[in-house]
Each structure stands twice: as C-alpha cells, then as structure tokens.
C-alpha cells in the first residue's frame, strides 16, 4: 500500500496558491575546483545520493472522490535532468544578479504532477564560483521519513561522484490504478471510520478542513506561549503579497557574535535576534514609521526540541520536533545591549527548557542539518495565523568545518524562506565555517527595499561590535 500523506503534509498542498508557493529554498555558493564542477558532475552526484532520499523520486497522486488524502507513488517518468537544471549569469556574475535570479526562481510554484523539488546549477559567477539553488516543497520534508536533499549531497571531504552500479539502477514500482486507490482508502477508513467524514469534508472544502484539524493541535501550543492572546502590532511587514519575490543577504562572523554573547550574556541565537531587531528598527525609521519606546515587531521563531519518545541519541533528537516561539523584538529601544537583554529575557523560558536542543547537539546531527531544520521551521510557521506575528525568523547552526559537493568546496550558504499570506518578509539564518549567513525573502512590492534592510542588518552587527570595543 502506498504511503499516505499526513494531514499536515496534505494541508501544504491544499493551501498553496500562485501567490504563496509552499517550498523552502537554499543558495549554496561553491568554489569551482581545478578539475571543474560541471552540470554533468552535479547530476552524477545527485543520482548517486538519490537512494538515500527515495521520496525525491516519488510524486503525489490523489484518490478518486477525495475518499482519503493523497498518496506518494514512484514516478515512472522520473527524469533527473528535469529536476536538476542549468542556468548562467553574464560573466562575471555579481551577487546582485545571482540573488535577483533566486527571487525569480523562488516565485514559481513547483509542478505538483512531478516529484516536488528542483535544483539549479548557476554558472558564470565572479572568481570562478558556481551556485546551487534548491527548491523543496514543505509537503516533502517531514524530518523523519524524508530530510532535505541538501543534507545528503554535502561531505566533510572531497568525494568525486561515482556512477551507480548496473545492479543498483532504480526501477519505479507499478503505479496503483484508480480502483486500487479507492480500495485502499476504503480499507483504511473501515479501520478508522472518522476518516470517512473528515475526508468527505475535505473534498468539499479542501484546505479549510485539513487546516482546521492541524490548527486544533497548534492552538494549544500558541496558548501556552501566551503572546497569542493578543495580535501583533500592525505594520508594513503584514501586507498582502503578490507572486513576485526579492531576495537579499547579509553576512557576519560567528566569532563576532560569540564575543557579544561572552560580554553581555544570552546565547548566540539571542544575539542574532538582537541584530535583526536593530536592523528592523533602522529600516522602520528610514521608512518614516512612527516608533515609540514600546514599539515591537513580533517574530515567530521555530526552535528544535528534544523528541521525548526518542532513544536519546543525537539523530533521534532531530525527528520532526520543531516548536514555534513568539518573541517581541524591542525595535523601539535605541540601546543595542538593552535590546539584547530584552531578547534574552524573552527567550529564557525556551533556553531553560529541558526539551530545548543545544546548538552543539544539532551540530552533531549527521549531514548538513540546516536545510532540513529550516524546512521544518517553515512548516511550523505556515500553520499559524499571520495575525499573531509580523515576521518568521529561522536560525539553525551549521558545521564549522568546510563541506564539499563532490570536489567543490562550499563557501557560503543562505536559506530562502517562503512567505505566507499577508507576510511580506521572512528571514533564515545559518552559521557555517565561521560565517553567519542571513537570507531575506521579501514580496517584490511590499518589500521592494529588502536589500536596504539587508545592509541595515550588517550595520546592526557593527553597532553591537562598536559598543563592545568601546
């Protein structure tokens, strides 16, 4: 019997529309080795790793009459060259040109009749660099059966890709016909009769029924957080979004943020949130927004927690246990260290929780875990009403050693987070090999100046460092 999508996974398909595609992305920049890093080499590497993530050769098929949620089935027409594509910038390609391309690629929904992922090799960058831009649907990555592809194509040492042995060539399983899909659905609903009513309701009101069922679980989490009893302060970040996107980045050094933490307390995550608060403060003032000492921007911050049912091993910590924490960023406070103390106080309940996962533990998770955890963070954020927060911020620590795709060394990695309805900005943060990389996704109309905000984040870092050195 094919695997059936969970209610949460199905909701991401039902809720998707042209203005709010439900995929998470990443931009990894590589230094091209002397031996080259051509498109054919990337395809060979991905084909070599596909057996580690079999879901990436499966597509979603609906059940006739909506008698049950859709199922995952092998795609008999799977073509790796359709999913792994090639693009180029006019040499020498600049960061601005690369990130403009990223915004355009991320604005396009994935084809739901095929496996729900795409990858683009972008050539022509300055200094002999290339970039890999990935798109993965939120219905695909659940952190248990399927992790993000970025977690399996990177290695701690150069690994030239090898062709798969002839006896390991993948053959798709036969597609189930409509009759088999219906019989499986009936057999499943006999075992769980409540499913009949729920699935019939979803047939009439697709997204609404499924989302309400998911929201019932999440409301308890929101109530426990406490802030959700009142909506977030209105502002320019909560605006209708269109189909077009802009993408911008900021960079910092991890040692600099650790130095701020060492002198003023808190965690590196607290410092990151303080940097974002400072950047948003400058951006709001630049826009002429009225700011008082009590002005706040509420961030929804997905955080990894321990799986209480796991066996205690580090890989078991990952699972799909990501909870969302609401944090009021004190953008009305002019002193950067008072902002840091406010953020640290707001984050303390999570940091002190026995279920919180320390950054050091996440760094021991096999593979390059940030892409998976950013995807799980996006899944958590998508399930909340945009009325209770202004911006999503995911911050996932990555390894502090160089990683390689084949023989190409990765130099930078930027998360690309999706936007929800009436959510004009989303921010992803990843640390890697001594750097901290901010990826800012903005609606092209409501956040036409997202590149200005990106510069202000770097100025916010410098503001903290200048005060530390004084």
From TrEMBL:
<feature type="domain" description="O-acyltransferase WSD1 C-terminal">
    <location>
        <begin position="319"/>
        <end position="464"/>
    </location>
</feature>
<keyword id="KW-0443">Lipid metabolism</keyword>
<protein>
    <recommendedName>
        <fullName>Diacylglycerol O-acyltransferase</fullName>
        <ecNumber>2.3.1.20</ecNumber>
    </recommendedName>
</protein>
<dbReference type="GO" id="GO:0001666">
    <property type="term" value="P:response to hypoxia"/>
</dbReference>
<comment type="pathway">
    <text>Glycerolipid metabolism; triacylglycerol biosynthesis.</text>
</comment>
<dbReference type="InterPro" id="IPR014292">
    <property type="entry name" value="Acyl_transf_WS/DGAT"/>
</dbReference>
<feature type="domain" description="O-acyltransferase WSD1-like N-terminal">
    <location>
        <begin position="5"/>
        <end position="272"/>
    </location>
</feature>
<comment type="pathway">
    <text>Lipid metabolism.</text>
</comment>
<dbReference type="GO" id="GO:0006071">
    <property type="term" value="P:glycerol metabolic process"/>
</dbReference>
<dbReference type="GO" id="GO:0005886">
    <property type="term" value="C:plasma membrane"/>
</dbReference>
<dbReference type="GO" id="GO:0019432">
    <property type="term" value="P:triglyceride biosynthetic process"/>
</dbReference>
<dbReference type="GO" id="GO:0071731">
    <property type="term" value="P:response to nitric oxide"/>
</dbReference>
<keyword id="KW-0808">Transferase</keyword>
<keyword id="KW-0319">Glycerol metabolism</keyword>
<dbReference type="Pfam" id="PF06974">
    <property type="entry name" value="WS_DGAT_C"/>
</dbReference>
<dbReference type="InterPro" id="IPR045034">
    <property type="entry name" value="O-acyltransferase_WSD1-like"/>
</dbReference>
<keyword id="KW-0012">Acyltransferase</keyword>
<keyword id="KW-0444">Lipid biosynthesis</keyword>
<dbReference type="InterPro" id="IPR009721">
    <property type="entry name" value="O-acyltransferase_WSD1_C"/>
</dbReference>
<dbReference type="Pfam" id="PF03007">
    <property type="entry name" value="WS_DGAT_cat"/>
</dbReference>
<dbReference type="GO" id="GO:0051701">
    <property type="term" value="P:biological process involved in interaction with host"/>
</dbReference>
<comment type="similarity">
    <text>Belongs to the long-chain O-acyltransferase family.</text>
</comment>
<dbReference type="GO" id="GO:0004144">
    <property type="term" value="F:diacylglycerol O-acyltransferase activity"/>
</dbReference>
<dbReference type="InterPro" id="IPR004255">
    <property type="entry name" value="O-acyltransferase_WSD1_N"/>
</dbReference>
């Amino acid at each position: 019997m094919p695997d059936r999508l969970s209610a949460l996974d199905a909701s991401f398909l039902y809720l998707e529309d042209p203005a709010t595609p439900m995929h998470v992305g990443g931009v990894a920049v590589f230094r091209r080795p002397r031996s080259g890093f051509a498109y054919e080499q990337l395809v060979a590497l991905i084909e070599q790793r596909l057996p580690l993530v079999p879901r990436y050769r499966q597509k979603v098929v609906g059940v006739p009459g909506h008698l049950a949620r859709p199922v995952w089935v092998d795609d008999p027409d799977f073509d790796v060259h359709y999913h792994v594509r090639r693009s180029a910038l006019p040499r020498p390609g600049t960061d601005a040109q690369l990130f403009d391309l990223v915004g355009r690629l991320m604005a396009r929904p994935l084809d739901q009749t095929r496996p729900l992922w795409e990858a683009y090799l972008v050539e022509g960058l300055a200094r002999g660099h290339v970039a890999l831009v990935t798109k993965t649907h939120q219905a695909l990555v659940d952190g248990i059966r399927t992790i993000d592809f970025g977690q399996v194509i990177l290695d701690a040492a150069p690994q030239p890709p090898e062709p798969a042995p002839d006896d390991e060539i993948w053959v798709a399983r036969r597609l189930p016909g409509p009759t088999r899909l219906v019989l499986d659905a009936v057999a499943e609903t006999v075992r769980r009769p409540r499913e009949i009513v729920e699935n019939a309701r979803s047939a009439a009101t697709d997204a609404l029924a499924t989302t309400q069922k998911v929201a019932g679980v999440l409301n308890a989490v929101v109530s426990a957080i406490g802030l959700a009893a009142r909506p977030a302060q209105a502002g320019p970040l909560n605006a209708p979004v269109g189909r077009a996107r802009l993408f911008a980045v900021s960079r910092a050094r991890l040692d600099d943020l650790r130095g701020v933490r060492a002198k003023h307390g808190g965690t590196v995550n607290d410092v990151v949130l303080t940097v974002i608060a400072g950047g948003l403060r400058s951006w709001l003032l630049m826009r002429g927004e009225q700011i008082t000492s009590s002005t706040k921007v509420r961030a929804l911050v997905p955080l990894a927690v321990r799986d209480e049912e796991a066996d205690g091993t580090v890989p078991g910590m990952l699972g799909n246990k990501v909870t969302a924490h609401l944090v009021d960023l004190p953008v009305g406070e002019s002193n950067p260290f008072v902002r840091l103390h406010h953020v640290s106080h707001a984050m303390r309940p999570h940091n002190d929780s026995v279920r919180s996962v320390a950054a050091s533990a996440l760094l021991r998770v096999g593979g390059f875990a940030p892409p998976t955890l950013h995807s799980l963070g996006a899944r958590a954020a998508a399930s909340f009403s945009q009325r209770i927060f202004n911006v999503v911020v995911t911050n996932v620590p990555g390894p502090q050693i160089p990683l390689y795709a084949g023989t190409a060394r990765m130099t930078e990695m930027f998360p690309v987070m999706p936007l929800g309805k009436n959510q004009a900005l989303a921010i992803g943060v990843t640390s890697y090999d001594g750097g901290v990389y901010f990826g800012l996704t903005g609606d092209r109309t409501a956040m036409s100046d997202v590149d200005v905000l990106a510069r202000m984040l770097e100025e916010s870092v410098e503001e903290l460092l200048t005060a530390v050195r004084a």
